[in-house]
Backbone:
């Protein structure tokens, strides 16, 4: 069974940093692109970032470009999101999601349960 | 790039059919047959219901169907059931521009 388990969320002050992790199991991790998608409280879904199987292709939403960095460690079956210069508007539930292809560009399935990031002083 | 436009809410009685529209642009929905739909129950993670405009993943009821015409995609739920009450989001690949993916604004489906 494919499982994605996010961790690393919490309460952080504006301007500080946080690193999210996503532990993957149940599939050959380095055969697939991966993504981060977030959902602000009571709001809709927003794609944040995606990374191809070998980290050769990476994309970011304009809202996080220059502040967030996505990475993966295929040896550890793990996906990461380094979030710097956090803002109140980054407050959201962050989901890790699997892409059905190695390069990305398709859809998201499955999703983890999410990890909550709250940016507040 | 703006979010895809969905109606805020759609309702129907058990057994009826409803359709949720998802309007984008020629840069996203209109350019790629990579529209997907997600169902989200309160407090739960989104679940893939439709991919590549009209394909259903294994395990998803055939009461769910998708289509596309021009810049507008649609999700139809036939034989509406109480368990279908949830939020639904469309999503389209938008190419190599940023963002690469655009989600819809979301639609709350209520079963009367």
Residues:
């Amino acid at each position: 069974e494919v499982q994605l388990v996010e961790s690393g969320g919490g309460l952080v002050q504006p301007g500080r940093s946080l690193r999210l992790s996503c532990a993957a199991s149940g599939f050959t991790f380095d055969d697939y692109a991966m993504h981060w998608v977030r959902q602000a409280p009571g709001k809709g879904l927003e794609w944040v970032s995606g990374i191809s199987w070998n980290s050769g292709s990476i994309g970011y939403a304009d809202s996080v470009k220059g502040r967030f960095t996505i990475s993966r460690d295929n040896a550890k079956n793990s996906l990461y999101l380094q979030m710097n210069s956090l803002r109140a508007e980054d407050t959201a539930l962050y989901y890790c999601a699997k892409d059905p292809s190695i390069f990305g560009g398709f859809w998201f399935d499955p999703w983890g349960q999410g990890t909550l990031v709250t940016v507040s002083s | 790039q703006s979010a895809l436009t969905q109606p805020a809410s759609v309702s129907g009685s058990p057994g009826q059919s409803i359709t949720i529209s998802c309007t984008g642009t020629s840069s996203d929905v209109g350019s790629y047959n990579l529209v997907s739909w997600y169902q989200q129950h309160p407090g739960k993670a989104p679940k893939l219901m439709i991919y590549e405009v009209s394909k259903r993943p294994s395990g998803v009821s055939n009461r769910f169907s998708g289509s596309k015409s021009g810049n507008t995609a649609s999700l139809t739920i036939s034989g509406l059931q109480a368990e279908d009450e949830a939020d639904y989001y469309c999503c389209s690949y938008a190419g190599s521009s940023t963002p690469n993916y655009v989600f819809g604004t979301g639609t709350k489906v209520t079963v009367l």
